[in-house]
Write a structure and sequence with these properties.
Layout (H helix, E strand, L loop, with lengths): L39 H6 L6 H9 L5 H17 L3 H11 L8 H19 L2 E6 L15 E4 L9 E6 L4 E6 L7 E5 L2 H7 L2
Parallel strand pairs: 1-5
Antiparallel strand pairs: 1-4, 2-3, 3-4
Helix pairs in contact: 3-5
Length: 198
Amino acid sequence: MTTTTPRPANVARETKAEAIGWHWGMFRLENPAHGLDPDVVDAVWDVIEPGISGTVRRFESGADTAGEREWLVVYASMAGVRHPDFKFAINRWLAEWGKPGVRGDDVHRVRLEALENGLVPMSNWRWRILHSPPEAPRFTLNDRAWSYLPQLRRQARGRRTLYLPLNSRVVAMAWLGESTGGFDHQVLRPSWVRWLTP
């Protein structure tokens, strides 16, 4: 009888970029209405995805136009409803409010409602683009797109700052505060990049 030793889960494996962080059919409707494309939710993401690389390159070069600002708000709002744990997060929130949870196709309906409801508040937040200089570590990307950092200022209106890595050298941050109508660019010291990068 031959036995094989199981491969440890934390061993690095070589793969293609296309195979990372991808789950086919994650947004596919299980019971679409007659004549409705079961992948209709994916069509929503197609509005913003084709321009990601070009827009991030413009952020790298210091761009600050109305078009880039609008793109950033839409991208951040989409990132907030697309991550794999959305169902668990929204059901936890609904339970706290004493409401029934959602499942099946209703999860995707709530995704789109949350996307629409998030656009206006996010457009009113303060936004900043952070740059990691060449001598500093690179920012770390994650599969949930954005996360929260604690606010360190005592006079801060909110307790958390949204932290959204756009690539390994550029991060967008947003927090509750009166919008300036744009965002500023700041190059961080290497020590600050190390603090932000686990």
